[in-house]
């Protein structure tokens, strides 16, 4: 753009004497090129402000008291009292210490940065204007709060939390006309778009959707909460393999034995039918009774789509393909954090399925008490399942599920290394922050 501006200036000067027989024509051309040069200058300044902006910040902490009630609900998805309660339940400390620079940040402010980053599509510059912080400090606050909240997602979305309630869920669905008896929830797989990854591009490519994806498996309960969450898996992983990797079937069989009643999950035709999982029929020749059952169950199974729709509406950051860079950020962990926060939002405000099934969701305290009480049992079960997955082999080789898990861990380690390198670069190039 600067080269074009210089050429226009030179042409304007040369046009003044280019027409000796008609000097007025030379003046007209010279004025025109001068006007174009001025337009280039204005456009160049606008591009500099847009792509390399300077934001003056004071680095003064901003907390709940700096936002009114409408701003809190619109920008952070929770009201003032709900935010205080949520921070208490998630054990947000008074201060966070950034691991790289050692800076100390207000815990409340860092948690607000996490919520706003997930709830909006702003860049670091826009977040700097909202929180009056430099871009590097915004990044540090987001990372420490994100890491803290992610630790709760491992136990906050496990079906074992609702073991004693599963028969009650089956009864509620039956009372609302569900034709499948003993059905306590619905299972479904979904995919999120990502940028073309730096490593393992072929494994992340999904030929059906013709794009790079990460896949997740979700179990939705009648109270509109995500009862079980598994992922991320590579884009090539089909639903059957994802189901095997999650070990949901043996876990549900144990829960069925514990409650002493039949229990079923219902899914689409991509899942294999078994003792605790019923699926929609597939094939061209379907008996009329099975077709009627599948048609009747479809209006109940669509509650899974409502959950994914709510996640996308609450946290549009996870659906923005331009932000889903697996080689430079932990996109899978961000999706897990968004799913956990969606559960807390449902506990606070309810959802569509709560009115549809007439089921009151638990309060945030009741929900948090569940995965706090069962965290030890879930951790022990996870360790046992992992050891069993490693030991199951054919001719001494690890199972296919374990191999895929190792492949994804390799991608995650590469992503974490790239994120750390970028984070250190941001700290070293912080020209906007003031001295501590």
What do these coordinates show?
- There is one protein chain.
- By secondary structure, the protein is an alpha+beta fold.
- It is 56% helix and 11% strand.
- It has 18 helices and 10 strands.
- It has helices at 2-15, 23-51, 69-76, 80-89, 107-119, 124-131, 135-156, 166-175, 201-204, 239-246, 248-259, 288-301, 303-314, 331-349, 352-357, 364-373, 375-391, 400-428, and strands at 95-97, 104-106, 183-193, 205-206, 211-220, 226-234, 264-267, 277-279, 393-394, 397-398.
- Strands 3, 4, 5, 6, 7 and 8 form a 6-stranded mixed beta sheet that branches.
- A hairpin with a 5-residue loop joins strand 5 and strand 6.
- Helix 1 (2-15) packs antiparallel against helix 2, helix 6 (124-131) packs across helix 7 (135-156) and helix 7 (135-156) packs across helix 14.
- The longest helix is centred in the first third of the chain and has 29 residues, at 23-51.
- Mean pLDDT is 80; it is low at 389-436.
- Spatial shape: elongated
Give the N-terminus to C-terminus distance in angstroms: 38 Å
- Average residue pLDDT: 80
- % residues in beta strands: 5-15%
Low-confidence stretches: 389-436
**What structural category arises from helix and sheet content?**
alpha+beta
- What is the tally of beta strands? 10
What is the radius of gyration? Answer: 28 Å
The description of the largest β-sheet is: 6 strands, mixed
SSE sequence, one letter per element? HHHHEEHHHHEHEEEHHEEHHHHHHEEH
Question: How would the blueprint of this fold be written?
Answer:
Layout: H1 2-15, H2 23-51, H3 69-76, H4 80-89, E1 95-97, E2 104-106, H5 107-119, H6 124-131, H7 135-156, H8 166-175, E3 183-193, H9 201-204, E4 205-206, E5 211-220, E6 226-234, H10 239-246, H11 248-259, E7 264-267, E8 277-279, H12 288-301, H13 303-314, H14 331-349, H15 352-357, H16 364-373, H17 375-391, E9 393-394, E10 397-398, H18 400-428
Parallel strand pairs: 3-7, 7-8
Antiparallel strand pairs: 1-2, 3-5, 4-5, 5-6, 9-10
Helix pairs in contact: 1-2, 5-7, 6-7, 7-14
């Amino acid at each position: 753009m600067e080269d074009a501006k210089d050429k226009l200036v030179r042409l304007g000067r040369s046009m003044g004497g280019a027409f000796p027989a008609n000097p007025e024509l030379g003046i007209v051309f010279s004025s025109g090129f001068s006007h174009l040069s001025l337009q280039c200058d204005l456009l160049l300044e606008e591009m500099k402000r847009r792509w390399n902006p300077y934001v003056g910040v004071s680095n003064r902490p901003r907390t709940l008291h700096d936002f009114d009630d409408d701003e809190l609900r619109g920008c952070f998805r929770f009201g003032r009292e709900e935010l205080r309660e949520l921070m208490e339940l998630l054990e947000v400390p008074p201060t966070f210490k950034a691991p790289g620079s050692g800076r100390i940040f207000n815990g409340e402010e860092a948690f607000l940065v996490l919520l706003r980053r997930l709830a909006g599509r702003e860049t670091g510059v826009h977040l700097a204007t909202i929180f009056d912080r430099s871009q590097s400090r915004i990044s540090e606050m987001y990372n420490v709060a994100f890491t803290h909240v992610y630790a709760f997602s491992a136990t906050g979305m496990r079906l074992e939390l609702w073991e004693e309630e599963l028969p009650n869920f089956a009864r509620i669905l039956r009372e609302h006309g569900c034709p499948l008896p003993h059905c306590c929830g619905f299972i479904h797989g979904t995919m999120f778009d990502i940028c073309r990854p730096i490593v393992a591009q072929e494994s992340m490519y999904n030929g059906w959707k013709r794009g790079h994806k990460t896949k997740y498996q979700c179990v939705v309960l009648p109270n509109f909460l995500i009862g079980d969450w598994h992922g991320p898996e590579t884009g090539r992983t089909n639903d059957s393999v994802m189901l095997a990797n999650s070990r949901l079937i043996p876990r549900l069989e144990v829960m069925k034995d514990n409650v002493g009643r039949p229990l079923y999950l219902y899914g689409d035709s991509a899942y294999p039918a078994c003792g605790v999982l019923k699926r929609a029929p597939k094939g061209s020749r379907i008996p009329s009774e099975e077709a009627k059952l599948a048609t009747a169950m479809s209006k109940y199974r669509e509650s899974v789509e409502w959950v994914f729709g709510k996640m996308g509406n609450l946290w549009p950051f996870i659906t923005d393909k331009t932000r889903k860079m697996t080689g430079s950020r932990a996109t899978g962990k961000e999706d897990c954090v968004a799913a956990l926060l969606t559960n807390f939002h449902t506990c606070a405000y309810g959802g569509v399925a709560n009115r549809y099934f007439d089921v009151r969701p638990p309060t945030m305290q009741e929900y948090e008490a569940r995965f706090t009480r069962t965290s030890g049992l879930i951790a022990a079960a996870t360790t046992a399942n992992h050891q069993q997955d490693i030991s199951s082999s054919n001719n001494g080789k690890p199972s296919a599920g374990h191999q895929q898990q190792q492949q994804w861990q390799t991608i995650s380690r590469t992503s974490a290394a790239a994120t750390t390198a970028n984070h250190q670069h941001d700290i070293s190039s912080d020209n906007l922050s003031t001295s501590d």
